[in-house]
Amino acid sequence: MHNLAIIAVDDLKAFVAENHIKNEVWNTKQAAEYLKCSPSTVKKYAEAGVIPGAKVGSDWRFSSIALFKYVAKEERSVANDN
């Protein structure tokens, strides 16, 4: 007997990312490169709680998986608005 599950493609992408993308801790510059924006924008968004991050001393740190999920969520939001 085979099990069949119906799930959204975006949920499948997040699941695959969590299980196949190495979860790394990125600094502000690395997060900015991934998000394709400036480090100052990353800091501003992190301080405002727009993107997930943690302040360690005076520096910000970001989980690669958390940022992947953030980007996937934003892409879904844009797609749903159209």
Q: Please, could you describe this protein's structure?
A:
This protein has 82 residues and is an alpha+beta fold. The protein has a single domain (9-81), classed as Arc Repressor Mutant, subunit A (Orthogonal Bundle), CATH 1.10.10. The protein has four helices and three strands, in the order H-E-H-H-E-E-H. The mean pLDDT is 85.
List keywords for this structure.
82 residues; alpha+beta; Arc Repressor Mutant, subunit A; 4 helices; 59% helix; 12% strand
- Main sheet properties: 3 strands, antiparallel
- In helices, the fraction of residues equals 55-70%
Alpha plus pi helix count = 4
Which segments are poorly predicted (pLDDT under 50) over 5 or more consecutive residues? none
Mean pLDDT: 85
From the helix content, strand content and strand pairing, which structural class follows? alpha+beta
Query: In percent, how much strand structure appears in the residues?
Result: 5-15%
Number of domains: 1
Strand order of the largest sheet: 1-3-2
Q: What name does CATH use for the topology?
A: Arc Repressor Mutant, subunit A
Give the overall form: globular
Give the helix/strand layout.
Elements: H1 9-20, E1 25-26, H2 28-35, H3 39-48, E2 54-56, E3 59-63, H4 64-81
Antiparallel strand pairs: 1-3, 2-3
Helix pairs in contact: 1-4, 2-3
Short description:
With 82 residues, the chain is α+β, with helices and mostly antiparallel strands.
